[in-house]
Amino acid sequence: MFNLKRCFLGIGLALCSCIMAVATPPLTTIQDVLYRADGTHFQGIATISWQSFEAVDSTNIPPQTITVNIVDGFMRVQLVPTTNAITPASYTVVYNSDGKAQFAENWIVPPSNVPLRVREVRVGGPGSVVGGGVGPSPQTAALQISDVLGLTAALNVRPTIGTGYTPSRAALINVAGSIDGAIGNLSDCLHIDGSAGPCGAASTNPSAGFVDGEIPSGTIDNSNMVFTLVSAPDPPSSLTLFRNGLLLQQGAEYSLSGATVTFASPRAPSIGDVMLASYRVTVDISGVAFVDAENPLGAVNGANTAFLLTKTPDPVSSLALYRNGLRLRMNLDYTVSGNSFSFLPGLAPQSGDILQCSYRIVPVVTP
Description:
5-stranded antiparallel beta sheet, 4 domains
């Protein structure tokens, strides 16, 4: 019977030992070499104290004080992390040398799998030596923003999140100085005043009469055929509409009605296509006239290289000549003389090619 009791007692002690081992809280190692101001190693002890707190794993840590010897400046101690503690906690560290307290500091210890240096856990606040003793423990007063030198001023100059803040949106500053998210369609362009609208709207200037590099509004989804310009081109032939850098043929690949562009079936823009439009809006410039979307005269048969325009481009550099939507280069693909142009040898347009020209002229003034 006696031996049986001893057996049960041994099993019970073993179980208790296992439970205690399992309940051991995680520890962070603080390891460093300390020096005096004259460059010699600090010699003495560090007294570390804390108030009761509950660790991240719900382990209860009662108030206590431990002493760590510092020999030739070397200090090493393992402590329960406080930054993730369930209840607020920190450590008060008092350094003693020559039989008296030299200075004190506060530690806030994060969880870490590698040893940390003292500078990585040290914080400001209560704990300085006052009248030969240590001031209030940091557990009696939470660390405030004002306790960190310069932090309040740094936070005051940073913009705050406004009521209209939305992730994945262009940011704009509201009247209160806070950050809001821009409102509008994801395909819109953002103007300098924070407003949003169809891209190209900012380039429209009725007094100037030109719209350049506008992106027509409309969904590019492989099926939508209808797109809208900010203004109606005037004249309609002044519209140059590019798809992935190629000039499209009005009347063949799309039709124009007012400010509405309708693609011919089955030519709906595909996902990823880029469209750009340029056109005029009722412009009257003294001494300047325009010729738009002209098809030059001449046989397109793979042999003929000479073609004729109805007017003479003035200046000659204003001539924009397109072949199957691709703009050609003057003096590299063709040469110009008066109101005629000629393709260089070997570059004669082939049967089925489409030629289109636009240029400026000096109008004839009738007395």
